[in-house]
Design a protein that fits this description.
Elements lengths: L6 H31 L6 H16 L3 H21 L10 H40 L2 H7 L4 H39 L4 H9 L5 H26 L5 H31 L1
Helix pairs in contact: 2-6, 3-4, 3-6, 4-6, 4-7, 4-8, 4-9, 6-7, 6-8, 8-9
Length: about 270
């Protein structure tokens, strides 16, 4: 068997091996970070105060972008469905049915989570990364404070608690946006659209969507905190960490979405 001595092949294989080792090392550091994050808070009063602050910072401040995206998302789904209703065998209430199913099963939990990965993920990574580069985290460690539990745990719990509320809010606004677009374009009546929304409704789909949302919220905040906490360098490196956090969180959401769909729906 011939052994390839091509320098380009050797360099390529070496680079791939280094990338794999680096990825495995980062996964190990991430798991170790989570082990420390979920330690018992030292002062529950301080933890509770930070938790409400993070709920406001991560969740309530995200309501405007979620509302805007949900309204237009529902309108586009309804209009595209109505525009492709060419078969006479399809009842008119199919527009409402498809809009509801698409919104609940995929668009609200997944698309809104991807948008929040960009907004919330970059904010979390930048905040913690700035504290790391300015040695504020080192100051917490010197004072005997568990910096990971103090900084990261309230963010994770705040996202896990409030993201499902954002997704429910998104579902309602998306259905409202679909109704508004159909009424304004006169493609369907309100009665027909409501019949479609109520037809063949499965309550378990809501549980499925909110379960996905909790997993996505955990991934977004924990991955962003990981890249922010292990930032090294200056302001430029904080920006790089925020970019890596958003990209990695988005990929993790897509992979988790595929796996959860296999587990819940198949």
């Amino acid at each position: 068997m011939r052994i390839q001595n091509d320098p380009l092949v050797i360099v390529k294989n070496t680079v791939n091996l280094v990338a794999v080792i680096k990825a495995l090392r980062n996964i190990g550091k991430y798991m170790m970070m989570l082990w420390i994050v979920f330690s018992r808070p030292e002062k529950w009063g301080v933890f509770r105060e930070r938790l409400f602050h993070e709920i406001h910072f991560i969740g309530i401040n995200s309501i405007p972008i979620v509302a805007l995206m949900s309204m237009f998302m529902g309108g586009v789904i309804a209009l595209q469905t109505a525009a492709n209703m060419t078969s006479p065998w399809l009842p008119e209430y199919t527009i409402g049915y498809i809009t509801r199913s698409s919104t609940i099963l995929e668009f609200s939990p997944t698309m809104i989570s991807l948008i929040l990965a960009g907004k919330v993920g970059s904010n979390v990574a930048s905040e913690i990364g700035t504290m790391k580069t300015t040695e504020q985290i080192d100051a917490l460690e010197v004072m005997g404070v568990n910096s990971l539990t103090f900084l990261v745990l309230p963010k994770i719990l705040g996202a896990v608690l409030f993201f499902p509320i954002l997704i429910i809010f998104s579902m309602g606004l998306s259905l409202m946006g679909g109704w508004l677009s159909l009424v304004l374009s006169e493609l369907a009546s309100t009665e027909t659209y409501v019949v479609g929304i109520r037809s063949f409704f499965i309550p378990g789909n809501i549980v499925y969507a909110l379960s996905k949302t909790v997993v996505f919220a955990f991934l977004i905040v924990s991955i962003s905190s990981f890249y922010g906490y292990y930032t090294k360098g200056g302001a430029l490196d904080v920006g790089k960490s925020a970019t890596k956090a958003v990209v990695t969180a988005s990929i993790a959401i897509l992979i988790a979405n595929f796996l959860l769909t296999q587990m819940f729906l198949l």
